[in-house]
Amino acid sequence: MRDAINFLLAGVGGQGTILASNVLVNVGLAAGYQAKQAEVHGMSQRGGSVTSFVRWGRTVYSPLVGAGEVDVFLAFEKAEALRNLNQLRMGALALVNLAAIEPVTVTTGGQSYPDDATLHQKISEVTREVIYVDGETTALGLGNVRAANVVLLGALSALMEREGLTGAELSADTWLKVIIARVPPKYADLNRQAFQAGREVVSSSS
Amino acid sequence: MIKMLSGDEAVARGAWEAGVAVASAYPGTPSTEILEDLVHYPNIYAEWAPNEKVAVDVAIGAAYAGRRGLAAMKHVGLNVAADSFMYASMTGMEAGLVIVSADDPAMHSSQNEQDNRTFAKFARIPCLEPSDSQEAKDMTIAAFGLSERFDTPVLLRLTTRICHSTSAVELGERVDGTPVEPKPFPRNPAKYVMVPGNAVKRHPVIEQRILDIAKFAESFPLNRIEMGETGLGIITAGVAYQYAKEVFPTASILRLGMTWPLPEQMIRRFAASVEKLIVIEELDPFIEEAVQLMGIPVEGKSIFPLTGELDPRVVRESAIHSSLLPASAHVPLPGVEVGPLPARPPVLCPGCPHRGVFYVLNKLKVPVNGDIGCYTLGLIPPLSAIHSCGCMGAGIAVAHGAVKAGSPEHHVAVIGDSTFFHTGIPALINTVYNRSRVITIIMDNRVTGMTGHQQNPGTGVTLQGETTTQIELEPLVRALGIKQVKTVPAYHVAEIEATLKEFLKLDEPAVLITLEPCVLLPEVRKTWTPLEVLAEQCNGCALCFRIGCPAILKSDELDARLQRPKALIDAALCTGCEVCAQICPQDAITFRQVEMSEV
Question: Which of A79, B27, B52, B331 is 20 to 30 Å apart from B89, CA to CA?
Answer without folding.
Answer: B27
